[in-house]
Design brief:
By secondary structure, the chain is of the alpha+beta class. The protein has one domain: Jelly Rolls (Sandwich). It is 31% helix and 24% strand. It contains 6 helices and 11 strands. Strand 2 and strand 3 form a beta hairpin.
């Protein structure tokens, strides 16, 4: 997903501030900040630290300075499509960054049933597999680990695994060190947005895998 490893939400936020995330991971963070605006404070602190670090760096000559400035001043204004996303709540069920990226709200997603009690819409963006997932209340997903990175943002409902509970606005960061079996809470269906840079790998006993696949 990026050259450096991401194993915590704080590390994910640092890469977001540095601008090193692929587009779908950036959108996931922006949607998280829409759902949990109090977490913007961490991003602001990281931006201040980055600014202070830049001020301490020695000056460096810019090659072809006049040509570069000319290109900047002659460039066209940002189009509406490429304008920065406003991090605020609106009337959609999904946060606006996700609606803008995926082109759907919850009632228009072209879900495909993958397993009993589990629906998904998947596409490829910027080298990542990007998914919207619908998990029936009480449904357990098969135990699995990861060949790369998986970022999951909970949009509605919640799931629990061996690390704890993930509810609306929470981000699950998983990699090859995580072997988990997410279970949607019984009170409400769980809807999530995920970004993967490599496939998952099923784990657990043969009997458990078959039972989880059947649902």
């Amino acid at each position: 997903m990026v050259h450096e490893h991401i194993d915590t939400v704080d590390a994910l936020m640092a890469h977001y501030v540095a601008g090193s995330l692929p587009e779908p991971a950036r959108v996931l963070v922006e949607a998280h900040l829409v759902m949990k605006p109090d977490h913007r404070a961490l991003v602001n602190d990281l931006e201040l630290l980055a600014g202070e670090a830049l001020e301490l760096m020695p000056d460096a000559a810019i090659p072809d300075r006049d040509a570069r400035l000319g290109a900047i001043f002659s460039s066209k204004p940002l189009s509406e499509k490429s304008a920065p996303i406003i991090l605020s709540r609106d009337q959609g069920a999904f946060p606006r960054p996700i609606r803008d990226l995926m082109g759907f709200d919850v009632d228009t997603v072209p879900w495909k049933t993958k397993l009993p009690g589990f629906k998904e819409y998947t596409t490829d963006i910027d080298g990542c597999e990007v998914s919207l997932m619908w998990i029936r209340a009480g449904r357990a997903l098969p135990s699995h680990t990861h060949k790369g990175m998986e970022l999951t943002l909970i949009l509605d409902g919640a799931f629990n695994d061996n690390r704890g509970r993930f509810g609306p606005g929470d981000i699950s960061v998983a990699d090859a060190t995580i072997d988990h079996r997410p279970v949607a809470e019984k009170e409400r269906h769980c809807i999530a947005f995920s970004v993967l840079d490599a496939p998952i790998k099923l784990t657990g006993s043969f009997r458990q895998i078959i039972g989880d696949l059947i649902g």
